[in-house]
Specification:
CATH class of the largest domain: Alpha Beta
Helix content: 40-55%
CATH superfamily of the largest domain: Carbon-nitrogen hydrolase
Number of strands: 12
Order of helices and strands: HHHHHHHHHEHEHEEEEEHEHEEEEHH
CATH topology of the largest domain: Nitrilase/N-carbamoyl-D-aminoacid amidohydrolase
């Protein structure tokens, strides 16, 4: 261990980046996150603030390249825009590693207690990263632990940041053992005890939720069309898509579900305003008596005759009524240009992006008098949006997504695992329809009851359990992260005061 930590600083920073990056899905090596930060922690406790920022940046760049490399494989845009977006994303996300590194090194220099503060600073960093139009909680450290269901269960109290907290805490304890403040053998014993405790509580929580009374059950036909998104808006392929979706609609009706779920932008049409396109859907919904929820683009005129475009979801009911939901958190530089409303000149930038307008309403749909909320693609990675739907009365959630733009990459599997975190946090079931995969039913424990693999056209009939649960996280949101952020501020303030005195 001594020889290893005596390696050049750049190698230690790089090694931490590789270990943490390799812990993210689809890798089954999530346990690497338990000690992957140790080399970086060693640096932060032994270098200046400037160096702490530098080596944290190198670690962050390495992690981000490994985890979000698929940004650069977007088949819906040209080579230059996707490479620019990948570079921008990696550098932007690495800024938060700089903040973490600077805070830790600076505080440790002034107080000598930086090691104890590291888990708190980390949660504060993840909390900051979840704000604004460029929010990206997608890569929170909690995602590395989806390989073990019991390790996720604390999220119904703390949210995903609570999982990140104990991961960083384990790293800090291991490094403290190396530093002989508690001894390596004792630190390993403490880490083992901590993991056993977290796992045991998780197993107990899973068992107790499995034994909860199911107050209702909604069946849904989850459709995975497996259509190439690059062909969807081609005129020559348009009719074929309508034929495919019509046949899948018929097959779904034959399963006699309570409602049918299609993915994001399932048809190349503005369904709400194009009667010819929606007429066969309305007729089948009416004749079968089975509602249908589908993703669809939409447009509306403003008073000045300009048009707003939306990424939406349209719910058809047997009585002929329709209800829309508009995606609220759009993908920056893919669905819109951030800050372009404030600075109209930004609209001239061309990243081959859409020009959508965000929605503002947490719209709830109903099936058999049971309210549910729908999330569109990237929204499922934003914990606060998801919990708001449940807080407003949703008894289960649906997710409509199209994860095929970046091909068969780790992004597909990361997005799928993120949905499992959301189910645990809010203790609700989630039905997920993806254009090319992964479509599934996720139970309130995070277990996957039904699943369609990537790149397969299929329909599954899933029974969604409705439980009378109200998780602490659902009621109080990011309270744990807020507390850690406040403590971080206090610690930095005391460090500043101590330095001046």
């Amino acid at each position: 261990m001594d020889k290893f930590l005596d390696l050049p600083k750049w190698q230690l920073a790089l090694f931490s980046g590789v270990l943490i990056g390799a812990a993210y899905p689809p890798s089954p090596l999530g346990f690497l996150a338990w000690f992957g930060l140790v080399p970086l922690i060693h640096l932060l406790c032994n270098v200046s603030t400037v160096e702490g920022a530098k080596w944290s940046f190198l670690t962050g760049v390495t992690v981000n390249i490994i985890t979000v490399y698929w940004f650069g494989l977007n088949s819906g845009a040209g080579l230059f825009p996707v490479l620019l977006s990948l570079t921008g994303a990696v550098l932007y996300l690495s800024i938060f590693w700089i903040i973490f590194g600077m805070c830790t090194s600076w505080y440790h220099q002034r107080t000598g207690y930086g090691l104890a503060a590291i888990p708190i600073f980390w949660v504060g960093m993840e909390h900051i990263r979840s704000f604004g139009p460029l929010a990206f909680p997608w890569i929170n450290l909690a995602l590395t632990q989806t390989f073990s269901l019991p390790l996720l269960q604390i999220a119904d109290v703390t949210g995903s940041t609570g999982i990140s907290f104990w991961i960083v805490l384990i790293n800090a304890i291991l490094y403290a053992g190396y530093g002989s403040s508690i001894g390596l053998k004792r630190s390993l014993q403490i880490v083992t005890l901590l993991l056993v405790l977290i796992s045991s509580l998780g197993v107990y929580r899973i068992s107790s939720i499995r034994n909860e009374k199911i107050i209702d059950q909604i069946s849904t036909a989850i459709v995975q069309p497996n259509i190439d998104p690059n062909q969807k808006w081609e005129a020559d392929f348009r009719d074929q898509i309508f034929i495919i979706m019509d046949s899948l609609h018929t097959a779904s009706i034959d399963l006699q579900p309570d409602f049918i779920l299609w993915p994001e932008a399932a048809l190349p049409s503005y369904l709400r305003i194009t009667y010819a396109a929606r007429r066969p859907i309305l007729r089948k919904v009416h004749d079968s008596g089975i509602p249908l929820l589908t993703g669809t683009p939409d447009r509306r005129k403003r008073e000045n005759n300009e048009r707003d475009y939306y990424n939406g979801a349209l719910y058809f009911t047997p009585d002929g009524s329709m209800k829309m939901y508009y995606k609220m958190h759009l993908v920056p530089f893919a669905e819109y240009i951030p800050f372009s409303k404030t600075f109209p000149v930004f609209k001239r930038l061309n990243f081959s992006q859409g020009n959508f307008t965000p929605g503002h309403d947490f719209t709830l749909f109903q099936v058999d008098s049971v309210p549910f909320g729908n999330l569109i693609c990237y929204e499922s990675s934003i914990p606060t949006i998801v919990s708001q739907f449940v807080r407003r009365g949703a008894k289960f959630l649906s997710i409509e997504t199209n994860d095929s733009w970046c091909g068969h990459t780790s992004g597909v599997y990361q997005h799928f695992q993120i949905a499992r975190l959301r189910a645990v946090e809010n203790r609700v079931a989630i039905a997920r329809s993806a254009n090319t995969g992964i479509s599934c039913l996720i139970l309130p424990t995070g277990e996957v009851a039904e699943k369609i693999p990537y790149n397969e056209q299929k329909i599954i009939l899933a029974e969604i359990p409705i439980l009378d649960l109200a998780s602490f996280y659902m009621r109080f949101g990011e309270l744990f992260a807020i507390i850690c952020s406040l403590i971080s501020t206090i610690l930095l303030g005391t460090g500043w005061v101590k330095n001046r005195s």
